[in-house]
Amino acid sequence: MGRFGDKVVVVTGGSRGMGRAMVRAFAAEGASVVIASRKIDACEELAAEVSAQHGVPTLPVACNVSSWDDCDALVAAVDEAFGRADVLVNNAGLSPLYPALGEVSEGLFDKVLGVNLKGPFRLAAALGTRMVAAGGGAIVNISSIAAIRPGPAELPYAMAKAGLNTLTEGLAQAFGPTVRVNAVQAGPFRTDISTAWTPEVVGAFERSTALRRIGEPEEVVPAVLHLASDEASFTTGAVLRVDGGMP
């Protein structure tokens, strides 16, 4: 059965990158998985893969988490399909490039804050409230080292992730003692976002981490599964760095 054999796990940004690695790992541990991202085709493809490989129930859902209505529709779809959610992983993230701080448009700013902070708030508030009523659950927010090491090239993103750290601690207080809320503060990982990094940026990351490399998506999975499982029964409101040893 695995650690999550009787659990329903919702992963946003679940069709690619770190989210895809998480979905595969939760399914391997027996979880029923809800795969949410903007592109339904990618969600359906991954759902078919993990269902065939592990024999677990799956639910692919198109969801732009920056939309309040889409978040509510995702919650309704989970309620209809499974009647509950035991684990929520707020993984969806967005960090678009911009030429200079003075050229950050209102639309870009709102989009970055919407995906990285507004959506996680709405989903955690809705599903966390249901978890409390059901007697327990776990929420894992995927933050970033940018929250505490902000740079000018990703400042709106860093602001949003700093807010996500604050949200994590506040929700832990709001939903305790039955629902735990934690965050993984990720360093540089080889995901779709990293495809926009220049060789100079990659080299700078490699030189600055104690492990002298960037991470692979699968390397964030053990921390996420730990925080989502009963192994972390006395851990809530924590922000765990998984960053290769960023200074």
Structure, described:
With 247 residues, the protein is of the alpha/beta class. The protein has a single domain, classed as NAD(P)-binding Rossmann-like Domain (Rossmann fold). The protein is 45% helix and 16% strand. It has a 7-stranded parallel beta sheet, sandwiched between helices. Helix 3 runs parallel beside helix 4 (106-134) and helix 4 packs parallel to helix 5 (155-175). The mean pLDDT is 95.
Briefly summarize what is shown.
The chain has 247 residues and is α/β, with parallel strands linked by helices. The protein is built from 7 helices and 7 strands; from the N terminus they run βαβαβαβαβαβααβ.
Keywords:
NAD(P)-dependent dehydrogenase (Short-subunit alcohol dehydrogenase family); 247 residues; seven-stranded parallel β-sheet; Rossmann fold; oxidoreductase; alpha/beta; single chain
Question: Which helices and strands occur, and which strands form pairs?
Answer:
Blueprint (H helix, E strand, L loop, with lengths): L7 E5 L4 H12 L3 E6 L2 H15 L3 E5 L5 H15 L4 E4 L15 H29 L2 E8 L10 H21 L3 E8 L12 H10 L12 H8 L10 E4 L5
Parallel strand pairs: 1-2, 1-4, 2-3, 4-5, 5-6, 6-7
